[in-house]
Backbone:
């Protein structure tokens, strides 16, 4: 396996338009590490680690009714750069509610909380690398990076692939969002790679009388990384 | 064979707590991992690793997520890729921990674990660390070595590849003022004490 990250796909640490990077981005060059068992291994979570409702955010925090908003299905495959499925990948997600409000107590955005929606979920990919979540489409969210700054609608994802080298924290966006052009986080990814973070509306995944479907494949690094043809 | 480009990383943002460390932050969702890495039956020397994370202005970072990945006391990783027979697996020890810096008054992270053994004879005992936070578009990797393993550290190939003047940033030191076996390991994202980060 290639021992270094593919920086033509991955964002740099310093992206000055995203202001929080300015005092937090490492400034010294990364030091290459000779690959050992420390990098070829990583935390293992099987299907037994997740609860029955963990992947259904429309149900996993109900108190006295259904969460408000547009129901969605988000599904896809986790694969490597050779398009081979990766089973047993733990995917954890978290997101704002339909009003664009996070339940996190530090979120001061003046939009309503939903007592029946937490916004957190997780699942483990099956033998074909497939996963599926049910949720509520999150709303756009204002932040203070610059004047009139709004995040495009997104879902946060954390993935543990087969080893520490494949650790990924990312965000999934929705197709056609008008905020892409103004969002320094989305724009922080290399131009040629940004579209890989955008899900696709999928009528086959859409369930009649229930929810729209969005397909989102996630490509983890390795093995045998070679120059990319996109 | 089809080649597909890697999905880019994006920041974990400021609101990861209820998704990634819910119980630590008081949300009603089960945590898969926390700072208590070693239940009573785990073999090995109990240690606590504490630290704080600082930005380039020297300010404490209150919204970092720190993850530990380590071998057990015998130097064995609880992972199928580590199938060596001479290092004993300890099924009770997963080797993974996770702690956010948003709950303690001093924004510290705190892991209760066992001291890892040497993985392969060549490498000194170490803990692999994933550092992520608002403002990091890609997570950062570092390692924690132990000040009381001077001989092993001197022979470690990774530490040796780091410029001598920066190796100190990877060494956890005993804090004798605290009860128990406590090591302190602060993480500096920038500045004269900037922690060494690796291209893993």
Residues:
């Amino acid at each position: 396996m290639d021992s270094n990250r593919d920086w033509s796909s991955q964002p740099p640490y310093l992206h000055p338009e995203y202001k929080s990077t300015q005092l937090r981005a490492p400034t010294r060059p990364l030091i290459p590490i000779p690959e050992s068992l420390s990098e070829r291994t990583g935390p293992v979570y099987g299907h037994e680690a997740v609860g029955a409702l963990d992947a259904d955010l429309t149900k996993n925090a109900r108190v006295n009714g259904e969460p408000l908003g547009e129901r969605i299905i988000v599904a896809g495959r986790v694969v490597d750069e050779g398009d081979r499925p990766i089973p047993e990948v733990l995917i954890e997600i978290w997101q704002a509610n339909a009003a664009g409000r996070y339940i996190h107590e530090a979120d001061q955005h003046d939009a309503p909380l939903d007592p029946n929606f937490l916004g957190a979920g997780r699942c483990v990919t099956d033998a074909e690398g497939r996963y599926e979540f049910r949720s509520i489409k999150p709303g756009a969210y204002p932040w203070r990076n610059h004047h009139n700054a709004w995040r495009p609608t997104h879902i946060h994802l954390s993935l543990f692939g087969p080893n520490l080298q494949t650790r990924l924290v990312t965000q999934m966006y929705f197709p056609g969002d008008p905020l892409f052009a103004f969002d320094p986080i989305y724009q922080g990814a290399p131009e040629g790679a940004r579209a890989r973070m955008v899900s696709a509306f999928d009528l086959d995944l859409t369930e009649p009388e229930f929810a729209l479907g969005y397909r989102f494949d996630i490509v983890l690094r390795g093995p045998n990384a070679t120059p990319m043809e996109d | 064979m089809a080649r597909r480009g890697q999905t880019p990383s994006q920041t974990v943002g400021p609101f990861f707590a209820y998704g990634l460390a819910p119980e630590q932050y008081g949300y009603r969702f089960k945590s898969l991992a926390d700072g208590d890495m070693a239940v009573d039956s785990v073999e090995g020397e109990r240690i606590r690793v504490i630290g704080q994370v600082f930005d380039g202005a020297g300010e404490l970072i209150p919204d970092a997520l720190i993850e530990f990945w380590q071998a057990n006391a015998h130097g064995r990783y609880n992972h199928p890729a580590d199938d060596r027979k001479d290092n004993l697996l300890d099924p009770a020890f997963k080797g993974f921990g996770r702690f956010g810096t948003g709950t303690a008054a001093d924004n510290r992270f705190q892991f209760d674990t066992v001291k890892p053994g040497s993985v392969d004879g060549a490498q000194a005992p170490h803990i692999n660390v994933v550092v992520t936070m608002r403002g990091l578009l890609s997570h950062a990797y570092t390692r924690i070595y132990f000040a009381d393993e001077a001989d092993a550290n001197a022979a470690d190939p990774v530490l040796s590849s780091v410029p001598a003047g920066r190796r100190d940033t990877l060494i956890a030191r005993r804090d004798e003022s605290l009860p128990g076996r406590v090591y302190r390991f602060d993480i500096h994202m920038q500045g004269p004490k900037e922690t060494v980060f690796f291209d893993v």
Q: What stands out?
A: The longest strand of chain B covers residues 126-133. Chain B has a mean pLDDT of 96. The radius of gyration of chain B is 17 Å. Helices of chain B lie at 17-20, 22-25, 150-155, 157-160.
